[in-house]
Structure formats: structure tokens, C-alpha cells
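Give me C-alpha cells for this 119-residue protein.
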Amino acid sequence: MNNLEIVLKGIKYNNPIHKIKDKRQELDMIFKDLNRGMEDIIKANYDNLSKLDKKLQLLNPTISLEKGHGILLNKNGFIIKSVEDLIIEDTLKILMKDGSIKAIVKEIEREGGGQVDGN
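Here you go.
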């Protein structure tokens, strides 16, 4: 390679149009990497939200009502979790999927058949 060829290659390499094309290619690659990264983040967040939605659905009390269960509330509107929270003649509200029922406690039995003090 002679000196003229070396100079011409140098001029061609340092040509502003050539440098612009190189930088444009670099920017295109960076843009593609950013898009890929954003897509990965969006997919990960979508998957995480889907998992959280499934957990919320499991905790949703209306799902339990749809299965035929009821939710017992005392006269103050608090959920009753145990027979120990009740006394004879307490007024209850039983929430069902399509409405509610008012009931009065007449008898209380513990699991295993033992009677609970009725006061």
C-alpha cells in the first residue's frame, strides 16, 4: 500500500458522513437494547401483577360467598371468628352472595360437642 492509498483511507475513515453513519449505527443498537430492556421490565412487572392479582382473588371474601359460605357479623358489624365471641340471644347478620340474613343465637356448641356458657 502506497502513501496515497493510506492518505485516501484516512480521509475516507475521517469523513464526517462516515462518522455520522457509524454513530447512527451505535444509536440504533443502543435504542434496540433499551427497547429490549424496557420490554423485559414490563413483562416482569406484568407477571408480578398477575401473581398479586391471583393472591388477591384468593383473599376476596366474595369468592367464598359464591361457594356457598356465609360471613357472620355481630351487632356492631365485626366478623365473628369463634363461638367464644357469642352469647345466647346475640343478634347476628349472615352475609350471603345475594343478600343477608338476621339471626338470633339460641344455642352454642363447641367443636366436639361441649356446651358453651350461655351468658
